[in-house]
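To make the argument concrete, we let one protein speak, a sequence paired with a row of structure tokens, as a model reads it:
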Amino acid sequence: MTIWGQLSIKSRLIALLVGVNLVALLTGGLLSLLEFQRAFRQQVFENLTSVRVSKAKQLETYLDDVRGHVATLSENQMVVDTMVTLNSNYRDLQNQAIADDWIEAIEDYYAEQFLPPLSDRSSGTYIVANYRPVTQAGQYLQYRYIVQNSIANLEEISDANDGSQYSRTHSTYHQRLRTITTEFNYGDLYLINFDTGEVVYSVYKRPDFATNLDRGPHRRSNLATVVNAVRADPGRGFVKVVDYDPYIPSQLDPTAFMAAPIYNGPHIVGIIAVQLPQERINTLLTGNQEWMDLGLGQTGQVYVVGDDFLMRSTARRLLEDAAAYRNTLERLGQTPQTLTLIETLNTSILLQEVDTVATTAAFAGEISTRLIRDYRGVPVLSTYAPLRVRGLDWVIVAEIDQAEAFRPITILQLYMSILGVILILLVTWFANFMALDLFRPIRKLLHVTHQIQSGQREVDLDFGRDSKLGELGNALNMVLQEIQHQEALVAEKNRVNENLLNNMLPAPLVPRFIKGDPVIADAIQQATLIVVRITGLQALTQAQASEKIVVLFDRLVRVFEEKAQYYGLETQLTIDETYIATCGIAQAFLDHQERTVNFALELVRLSETGSEGFPAEIDLQIGIHSGPVVVGVVGAPTFMYKLWGSTVEVVLALNPKGGASNSILITQTIRDRLKGRYMLVPCPPLYLEDKDTPIARWMVFTRTGQFIQQVGLVQKTHNLLLPQVTMAAEILYNRVTYLAPEICAMLEGDDPLVHQILVKDTLQALVNGLSSLDKLLPMVQAWGGVYAQAGVQDTHYEVVGDALGAMLEQTLGDNFTVDVQEAWMAMFHLLSGVIREAAIATQDSPTSPSNTP
């Protein structure tokens, strides 16, 4: 017997009263604590959000100011004059003779001064030949302004004292451009030739000075990227921006650029580009490292993250305690190379990954606050939002450790625990007093309890005039109401479960499943199955985050299921890159084959057009087969709805992954039912190990993007044949004559030359007609009846196809690539398939033959 069972009724009443009062006290205290916690948390979040909003506004305003300043500089007459003059001076230097000792000095500079620190930072190997300038102007200017000067601050050099026109122009404008760069804290300022991509001027004379951004050593840098962006959209006053990327001329420091075109009247003469100041952005976000004054306490920080989930500002912990920050990253498994770069560059920009719930939500456009785990795995209060910066996909996040933010709540919990112990003692004393008064009517209470336990819902709860017992009666009445409510919930749950089963199983199987039949299976005499292979989905998703993969796959499945429901199909399975559906199982349709083919054509249309969110990078291989299947429920307690039979085996192998792009293959059963409604082209048969006879296949022809590309390739290579078309026709004719002489005997007349001319003209007509299939196909279909009466066999088409391939290989030479061969054979199989289908139709319903070749 338990301790509770050994207690007297009085003791139990005392315990009950203590419990009830204790629950009431604890509930009140807990609600008060929760309300305080809610209000305090709201205040903390509001303060944190205020900081985030303020910093976001400052950063957006600053970047807009820089954008406006760059636009203003591009219109400044001094900048325009400088650009025009330096372009001319730079061109003059392209004919400047460069002494061998200059070239040797330039190579020594790169080998001894520039590249060694670069190798130390990246642990890589850099070759001098890949980075030194190769043009005469570049060699001249880098020698005069970089190599021959021993001072550390090359921006102080206004005149190289070489007497050149370039140096005279440079000395005129350099100090003004340097002042602009210094006052606005730009990392550098560049003037770039719009047409050639030559960096004709820079303030700080780094190794990108006097190099070519189209063909030079920094052609893959983000400076080259922003220059190309300006070239692509050179509107007057339009400013382009490029995100941070390691920049080799700055010793791999993360660097971002803004650039705008320079107009001299109506003519574009160059591009002005500025290097965004990394320190200025950090100062804005850290409040000059005065985090306490910002209300961020000991652990709070504001940082920016790019669309690659890497930081675009420096982490607070790196600025305050670099050693502790390194230890944290080591614990999280950061690579030694990255740790070395963080320590060397003293920045977390492009080096610290922040793939958290907050950043993911912010990139989805969400502006919110929540409790999450940050990139260290530590619980934090986080507020986040996307930044409104044109050209940059950035988000801003403000966070503070949960432990620091909620420390006042922890202290309050301690005080309330002490108060709770005192209240328990008081409640126990009071409960003992009340138990004496409640002891007398206890028997009636027990009787009522037994009535309720036995299932009675209408009981006598009248305990007389005693107000306390009256309250107890009311409480019991509420219990009865709750029981009735729970019983109603159970009934509702059973109804919901039955609805779920109706969604998971065909309607005829649901009652049998609910009844608990041990074997649930049905044989369907005729149903249509479709298997859709999705090609390209894995490559599309392998570089994305898991959340984005799920969103993409969910969108595809929703589109598939929406279209399936529209055409009366039922989804059976979606796994990996395969989608399976059926028509005619749960609901019988007389046109289940046609519904399924129309469903497949709709999927191909979506894939080709990219509509309804269908990714353009994927294509489909679809197989459709109709026949008997066995359906049933297997497994316990987790059950599955399964399909069996040879029909399933055939449709799974009908159009395997890797087949023609956006192709639909059907079997004999579908073809016999739907011929005449669609253009059906015979395909090579399918051989299965456990089948004695091959499975005939037809392709439902659709004008896909791949088909259009192949038509263009056939017409292009046919144009290459035109100079030797007579020889090509002769080769094709002789090859056919050699392989199957009886084919030539079917042609009118005995003159081989006439036959060769006929071959040439026919080939020309077919190739040209591919651009207008609506006109070509009726003509080709008319040939089917003629060929059928002439005795043309399926093997003859194979002979002509082999002869065509041999002719193309012999005449095209190196132009006969794999793509060319596949394109010609695809067109041949299409047209020969149309002829063969027309021949079969003619045999079924004879028509008068036309005079066709």
Notes: The longest strand covers residues 520-535. Residues 143 and 149 are 8 Å apart (CA to CA). Residues 705-844 form a domain with the Globin-like fold (CATH 1.10.490.10).
